[in-house]
Structure formats: C-alpha cells, structure tokens
Specification:
With 89 residues, the chain is mostly helical. It is elongated and about 60 Å long. It has one domain. Helix 1 packs across helix 3.
Length: 89
C-alpha cells in the first residue's frame, strides 16, 4: 500500500475517532458546580480542552489504524469471511 493511501486512511480513522471520543469525560456546568453564562446550553461542557481531546483522539485513531494495517498485511479478516449472503463465491 502506498504511503499516501496509509495517510488518507489514517485521516479517516482520526476523523471517525473524534466523534467516538468526544462524548467521554464531558462535565456540564451543573456537574462541575459552576455558574451558567446567559445563553449557555445546559448540556454544554464546563471546560473544553482541545489539546486533551486531540491527544485522546490521536491515540484511539493510531490504535485503530494500526489494527487496520495489520489486518491488511496479515489477512486476519477477509471480505469472504464477512459474506453473509454467499455473493462472493
């Protein structure tokens, strides 16, 4: 596989991981015991640390990407194994 393909696939895994990681570890203003700002949604996070989220996303994306590349190289799961309706025969 070319390095550009690997980079594109990593970017896709990173983008997917953003939505996977964002809901975890969020504390609202009510849970943190803080004061609401006028116009603030009750579900808005009290503190949003972009650096911490980016590090978590990068770790998750790298693990998923490494598993994908290892599966590509070693063929642990093939399309034929996932063929539930027998269309690949």
């Amino acid at each position: 596989m070319r390095w550009t393909s690997l980079l594109a696939i990593y970017f896709l895994f990173w983008s997917f991981s953003v939505f996977l990681v964002l809901p975890f570890g969020v504390r609202t203003t009510h849970e943190a015991g803080g004061e609401y700002v006028p116009g603030q949604a009750e579900s808005a996070p009290h503190v949003f640390d972009v650096r911490r989220i980016a590090i978590r996303v990068t770790i998750v994306a790298t693990i998923l990407w490494a598993l994908f590349v290892a599966n590509y190289e070693f063929g642990w799961i093939t399309p034929k194994m996932l063929d539930l309706f027998g269309r690949l025969d």
